[in-house]
Each structure stands twice: as structure tokens, then as C-alpha cells.
Design a protein that fits this description.
By secondary structure, this protein is an alpha+beta fold. It has four helices and 14 strands. Strands 1, 4, 5, 9, 12, 13 and 14 form a seven-stranded mixed β-sheet that branches. The protein starts with a helix and ends with a helix.
């Protein structure tokens, strides 16, 4: 049979191990979040991908209302046609079809630099999109027309099929951008991430009535010339866990509570007998 002191030691050890393990896993699931802003004098614009909301079934499919035409592009700060000559027409394949798109600021070696914010630092592009013909419109006589807009790092491709930023017809949709840098501290398997958060607003586009085409404006600029850094940092790391575990083992190995308690009784005997060897035999036994 195990001595009572060994049983107590094992239970105490298991309790402390459970406590520090619970603290470690809880901290991994809910790390501390630190948000900071670093002000810049200029920022690189993201790559802008603007696609027709209606997509073709395949590259061989002929779909006029799935296309889009860039009519103009205006740089508000310079008050002239925008300098975003670094553009390309792209067809992006997804699991559900092909999106026809324009992409701006695609040269990673020569990115467009923004030094202004808000309206004065904005770029505006005007597009024409064909309305679907009557034979593809459902029985409600309604159809969807619009563009979807993606903002990514220049060397990244957008996930256009899962995009959630849209520009409706007859409006100029303005997107105010905020660059966000996400850091996962103490997680070597998860790299840093960059994204562009945005808030949007719209102004109406006045035009002559046309049943054949819709006109859509897309404008964008930085909200601030700053980078928002979001750091997820587990305060209780694996190093803390092993440090506490080692400290617990050392403490329990050096201190047997049951033996100390029973040692008080032996201490009384040692005093009456005036012999310290009783204590020595007890704690060394």
C-alpha cells in the first residue's frame, strides 16, 4: 500500500498540473489583443480588383452582360485622368464561373503612392455594364446589376467569389480604406496578415435614362495615413507552462506537507527525550 504522504503528493501534483494546463489552453484560445496605430507620411495603395457581379459559366461562354467597360478614371488630387495606368483586364476563374475584371496598381516594383486622405486623395473610376437581356430575366422582371470591389496586397489575388464589397448601379460608391497589420505573436506557424478594412458611402450618378446599360462609379482613398497593428499575444506561453510545472515539482519535492505535519508530533517527542535524532530519523525515513 502506498504511504499516505505519497498519495497526498500525487493528488496535489495532479491538481496543480490541471490548473496550469487549463490556464495555458484558455490563454491560447483567448489571447490578449493590443491595437496600435503607426502614422505614415505616405502609403502604398492596394491592388484594386473591380469585377462585374454577373459571371460567365466558363471562358467559352458568351455573356455580354457579364463584361464591364471602363469609361474614365479621375485622380482628384491632380485633377486629371488618374495615374493608374498600371491596369490590366483580367478573367478570374472560380469554382462557380469566370469573373471579368479590371485590376489597378498591379506592378509590385512600381506601386502607386498615396500622400493624401479623404476626397482630395481619392481616385474615381466610371464603368458601363450591360443590363441582362429579357430572356435571362426571371419571372419577377428583376435582375441584378453591379460591381464587386476587392482590395488586396499587390502580390495577392482576391477571392472574388466570396467578396462582400459591392457597388450598385446609378451610384458612385466611395470606399475609405484603413490598412491593417495583424500579428500572431508566439505562433510560428501563422504568418502575419495584411488587409484593408473599409467603410463605404454613396452619391447618386445622374444620367439619361437607358434600358440597355447601367453606369457605376467606384471611388477609393485612405481614411488615414496610418497602419493599424493588431497583435494577438498569448500572455501565458508554453515556456511559462513548463516553468510553472518545474517550479511545482521542485516545491512539492522539497516540501511534503503530511511529513511536516506529523513532524510536529515527533518534535514534541524529541523535546521530551532531549534527542534530535527522532526528527532526523523521521524526515530522512
Amino acid at each position: 500500500m502506498f504511504p499516505l504522504s505519497h498519495i497526498f503528493f500525487s493528488l496535489l501534483q495532479a491538481y496543480f498540473l490541471y490548473q496550469i494546463a487549463t490556464q495555458y489552453f484558455a490563454n491560447q484560445r483567448n489571447p490578449s489583443t493590443v491595437i496600435t496605430f503607426e502614422t505614415q507620411t505616405q502609403l502604398e495603395l492596394p491592388k484594386i480588383t473591380i469585377c462585374n457581379w454577373n459571371q460567365q459559366r466558363s471562358r467559352l461562354d458568351r455573356c455580354d452582360y457579364c463584361d464591364l467597360t471602363l469609361l474614365s478614371c479621375h485622380d482628384v488630387f491632380s485633377d486629371k485622368r488618374c495615374t493608374m495606368v498600371k491596369k490590366q483586364i483580367a478573367s478570374i476563374d472560380t469554382k462557380r464561373g469566370v469573373f471579368n475584371c479590371y485590376q489597378f496598381n498591379v506592378d509590385n516594383d512600381d506601386p502607386i503612392i498615396s500622400t493624401n486622405i479623404g476626397y482630395i486623395g481619392s481616385f474615381t473610376a466610371l464603368f458601363r455594364v450591360a443590363n441582362p437581356p429579357l430572356d435571362v430575366v426571371d419571372t419577377t422582371d428583376l435582375y441584378r446589376v453591379g460591381l464587386q470591389v476587392s482590395f488586396t496586397l499587390i502580390d495577392e489575388e482576391p477571392d472574388v467569389f466570396n467578396e462582400d464589397k459591392f457597388a450598385p448601379p446609378d451610384f458612385d460608391s466611395y470606399f475609405a480604406l484603413q490598412k491593417v497589420h495583424t500579428i500572431y505573436a508566439n505562433d510560428t506557424e501563422r504568418p502575419d496578415e495584411y488587409r484593408f478594412d473599409q467603410s463605404s458611402s454613396m452619391t447618386a450618378l445622374n444620367r439619361a435614362t437607358s434600358s440597355q446599360y447601367s453606369y457605376i462609379g467606384v471611388s477609393f482613398a485612405f481614411k488615414t495615413l496610418s497602419v493599424q497593428t493588431v497583435t494577438y499575444d498569448p500572455q501565458y506561453t508554453l515556456a511559462n507552462f513548463w516553468g510553472d510545472f518545474a517550479g511545482m515539482i521542485g516545491t512539492l519535492m522539497g516540501l511534503d506537507v503530511v511529513k511536516v505535519a506529523s513532524g510536529l508530533i515527533v518534535l514534541g517527542t524529541a523535546i521530551r527525550k532531549k534527542n534530535i535524532w527522532y526528527l532526523q530519523d523521521h524526515f530522512n525515513g
